[in-house]
């Protein structure tokens, strides 16, 4: 371990040009990433995109083939896992089945040769923090999945790591429990101000828990941004397709609208850019109006899916199938009007982003209206 | 409830309530017992009865089914009416030869179990942690003796370690006088290790393979060295296979005949060889059966350990479920 020149203790986690090849395939390619102290960063991506490999390199379970990894300015590129100031929460909890909850939590402290009193004190702190005091002497197999996950978190936190690593920690929990444990993790992470890298393939989980999200694809970071930014302005078609739902129209903006399959224009208020190959529209950016409403195109309702406080509506309009979210209650086969408030324009899979969002003029809307009536 | 769920049942007599165990399921229980009876009867007839008759013979009941064995004996101790006699036990247990043979048997058993466990653990652990070609090769080589008949393996070992064998001859080429282990107790241990190692490697390898990588990674992540991770995680989680290997090896070695007969010295040797000689050469079937009972008691003690390990494994799996 060496201290990187020009770095200080408040550097957080820094990955510089990290690469990893496994079985002849590049899993992680020249990754540049910096996680600030106290930040919770999500590595999000589909299976095989390299997110877990990246996490295992940070934890020291895999050695990078190239690049440098520092934690608070100290080089840990080739340190063994037991020499790193990190602690990991594993996907399957990885609790030792032959040790009680308290022994699981205290194992790392025992390895560090702390006194029995100190170990008891710290284990009690962790048990209190995660609300597990009543399971102190229980064996892991006798507690629920959610409780096992909290034990795993307590085991990691009790070591007071500089960086907490979480490898899809909620993937084995049912939907309701996942939300509860997710909130617990976020609350504790913020309270302790611990730098955290959280791996998940669940976009909803990432959007709700992270300070920033790094969306990975084929071993590279496609976009690193705050959740709101990532959702509103996905920089590539991959990110746009991966985060949330999208109406993908493989045609660029024309005449101030988005041409549908038969050439009729779907009127749109704003575009991210003036010209591009494709226009993608979020379902919530599609507005359902009355049929023949000015500045709209006609559509027929194919299906209405109740989603609790809103409805997801599948529509057919001029040969194109579109998806919209609405608070209204349209009927199946009802004729409605449809317009878009915003469209993301991509050229060569990259977001076309003008400084000022392109706004079509009045003439454009007139063309759309007349096209529809024709 | 649908119409097909149950047929209308006749009301049960008030003084004799119908219960699942005493009523409708009884014929089924009897039929299941009947199906299981052939193997049970087979064990009773071919194992249970000979054991009882054998033990009776050692206690001086020389009549009935033991009369032929009594006729073949150069001497037998007989019970005084219904009172059993322990004279045969006194005769065998006080014999100097029996005691030294018992000592050799216990010594060879303990040493073999220890060596087999250490070797099997080293090979299985190396294969588990390295995951490389050498580890797989070692595991493969270790199970080869499974496919070689014991008598051939024992003959090869005897020839290899003979005074005129390969090892001693090789040593002489370099001016070194190596010991000849054939016809000596160390030769028996080598033979026993050869026979027992494959099964031990197979069982401990499967035990170690069942320890998930994440548990080892979690220990490393908590700050434990590889050695500490093995000691604190892998060893406790492989206790049951280790106990099973130890008990099976111990019972197998204790009752072995071929290896000590072919490789071991004339005397002292293991009890299996002594038992055979007592029966065939000295024509003392009663003494031979006393030796068999002693071996049986020792094996039963080891078997109790195996039962305990299995019961513990069952309890653990019940908790997992």
How does this structure look, described?
The complex is a heterodimer of chains A (374) and B (321). Chain A is 26% helix and 33% strand. With 374 residues, chain A is α+β, with helices and mostly antiparallel strands. Chain A has 2 domains: 2-241, 3-Layer(aba) Sandwich (Rossmann fold), CATH 3.40.50.300; 245-373, Nucleic acid-binding proteins (OB fold (Dihydrolipoamide Acetyltransferase, E2P), Beta Barrel), CATH 2.40.50.140. In chain A, the strands form 3 sheets. In chain A, strands 12, 13, 14, 15, 16, 17, 18, 19, 20 and 21 form a 10-stranded mixed sheet that branches. Chain A has a 6-stranded mixed sheet with strand order 7-8-9-4-10-11, with helices on both faces. In chain A, strands 1-6-5-2-3 form a 5-stranded antiparallel sheet, with helices on one face. In chain A, a hairpin with a 2-residue loop joins strand 10 and strand 11. The longest helix of chain A has 18 residues, at 175-192. Chain A is elongated and about 80 Å long. Mean pLDDT of chain A is 88; it is low at 1-7 and 361-374. Chain B starts with 25 loop residues before the first helix and ends with a helix. In chain B, helix 8 (185-209) packs antiparallel against helix 11. Chain B is an all-alpha fold and 321 residues long. The model of chain B is unreliable at 1-22 and 317-321 (pLDDT under 50). Chain B contains 14 helices and no strands. Chain B has helices spanning 26-58, 67-72, 87-93, 96-130, 133-142, 150-160, 166-173, 185-209, 213-221, 226-237, 239-254, 258-263, 271-280, 285-320.
Look at the structure and name the CATH superfamily of the largest domain in chain A: P-loop containing nucleotide triphosphate hydrolases
CATH superfamily of the largest domain in chain B: MetI-like
The CATH topology of the largest domain in chain B corresponds to: MetI-like fold
Q: What's the total count of β strands of chain A? A: 21
- CATH class group of the largest domain in chain A: Alpha Beta
Radius of gyration from the alpha-carbon trace of chain A, in angstroms = 25 Å
Provide the structure class of chain B.
mainly alpha
* Largest pleated sheet of chain A: 10 strands, mixed
- Helix segment count of chain B? 14
The DSSP helix count of chain A reads 9
The major sheet of chain B is characterized as: none
By secondary-structure content and strand pairing, the structural class of chain A works out as: alpha+beta
Helix content of chain A: 25-40%
Mean pLDDT of chain B: 87
Order of helices and strands of chain B: HHHHHHHHHHHHHH
Q: What is the helix fraction of residues of chain B, given as a range? A: 55-70%
Regions with little confidence, pLDDT below 50 for 5+ residues of chain A: 1-7, 361-374
The name of the CATH architecture of the largest domain in chain A is 3-Layer(aba) Sandwich
- CATH-defined architecture of the largest domain in chain B: Orthogonal Bundle
Largest interface: A-B, 26 and 20 residues
């Amino acid at each position: 371990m060496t201290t990187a020149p020009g770095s200080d203790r408040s550097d957080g986690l820094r990955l510089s040009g990290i690469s990893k090849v496994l079985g002849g395939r590049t899993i992680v390619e020249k990754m540049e990433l910096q996680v600030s102290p106290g930040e919770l960063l999500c590595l999000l991506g589909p299976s095989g995109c390299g997110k877990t490999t990246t996490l295992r390199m940070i934890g020291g379970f895999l050695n990078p083939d190239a690049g440098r990894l520092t934690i608070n300015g100290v080089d840990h590129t080739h340190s063994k896992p037991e020499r790193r100031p990190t602690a990991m929460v594993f996907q399957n909890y990885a609790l030792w089945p032959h040790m009680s909850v308290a022994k699981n939590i205290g194992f790392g402290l025992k390895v560090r040769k702390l006194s029995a009193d100190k170990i008891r004190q710290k284990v009690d702190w962790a048990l209190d923090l995660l609300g597990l005091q009543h399971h102190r002497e229980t064996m892991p197999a006798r507690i629920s999945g959610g409780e096992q996950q909290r034990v795993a978190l307590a085991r990691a936190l009790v070591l007071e790591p500089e960086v907490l690593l979480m490898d899809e920690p909620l993937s084995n929990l049912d939907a309701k429990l996942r939300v509860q444990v997710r909130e617990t993790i976020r609350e504790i992470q913020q309270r302790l101000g611990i730098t955290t890298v959280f791996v998940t393939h669940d976009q909803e989980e990432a959007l709700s828990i992270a300070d920033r999200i790094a969306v990975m694809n084929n071993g590279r970071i496609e976009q690193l941004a705050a959740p709101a930014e990532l959702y509103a302005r996905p920089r590539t078609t991959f990110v746009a397709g991966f985060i949330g739902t999208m109406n993908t129209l493989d045609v660029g903006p024309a005449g101030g609208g988005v041409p549908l399959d038969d050439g009729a224009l779907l009127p749109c208020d704003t575009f991210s850019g003036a010209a591009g190959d494709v226009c993608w529209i979020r379902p919530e950016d599609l507005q359902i109006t009355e049929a023949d409403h000015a500045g709209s195109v006609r559509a027929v309702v194919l299906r209405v899916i109740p989603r609790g406080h809103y409805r997801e509506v599948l529509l057919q309009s001029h040969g194109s199938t579109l998806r919209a979210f609405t608070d209204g209650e349209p009927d199946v086969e009802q004729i409605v009007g449809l317009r878009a408030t915003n469209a993301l324009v991509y050229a060569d899979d990259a977001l076309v982003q003008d400084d000022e969002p392109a706004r079509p003029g009045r003439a454009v809307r007139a063309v759309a209206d007349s096209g529809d009536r024709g | 409830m649908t119409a097909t769920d149950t047929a209308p049942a006749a009301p049960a007599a008030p003084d004799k309530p119908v219960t699942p165990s005493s009523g409708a399921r009884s014929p089924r229980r009897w039929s299941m017992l009947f199906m299981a009876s052939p193997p049970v009867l087979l064990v009773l007839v071919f194992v249970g009865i000979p054991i009882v008759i054998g033990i009776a013979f050692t206690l001086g009941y020389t009549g009935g089914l033991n009369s032929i064995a009594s006729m073949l004996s150069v001497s037998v101790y007989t019970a005084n009416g219904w009172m059993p006699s322990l004279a045969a036990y006194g005769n065998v247990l006080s014999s100097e030869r029996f005691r030294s043979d018992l000592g050799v048997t216990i010594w060879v058993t303990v040493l073999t179990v220890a060596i087999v466990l250490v070797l099997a653990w080293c090979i299985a652990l190396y294969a588990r942690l390295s995951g490389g070609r050498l580890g797989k090769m070692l595991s493969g080589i270790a199970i080869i003796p499974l496919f070689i008949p014991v008598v051939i393996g024992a003959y090869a070992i005897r020839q290899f370690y003979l005074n005129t064998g390969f090892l001693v001859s090789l040593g002489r080429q370099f001016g070194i006088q190596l010991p000849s282990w054939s016809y000596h107790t160390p030769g028996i241990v080598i033979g026993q290790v050869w026979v027992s190692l494959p099964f031990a490697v197979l069982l401990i390898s499967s035990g170690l393979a069942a320890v998930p990588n994440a548990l080892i990674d979690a220990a490393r992540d908590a700050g434990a060295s590889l050695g500490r991770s093995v000691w604190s995680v892998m060893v406790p989680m492989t206790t049951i296979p280790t106990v099973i290997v130890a008990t099976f090896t111990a019972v197998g070695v204790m009752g072995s005949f071929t290896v000590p007969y072919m490789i071991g010295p004339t005397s002292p040797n293991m009890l299996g060889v002594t038992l055979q000689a007592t029966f065939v050469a000295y024509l003392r079937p009663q003494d031979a059966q006393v030796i068999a009972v002693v071996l049986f008691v020792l094996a039963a003690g080891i078997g109790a350990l195996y039962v305990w390990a299995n019961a513990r494994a069952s309890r653990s799996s019940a908790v997992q479920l």
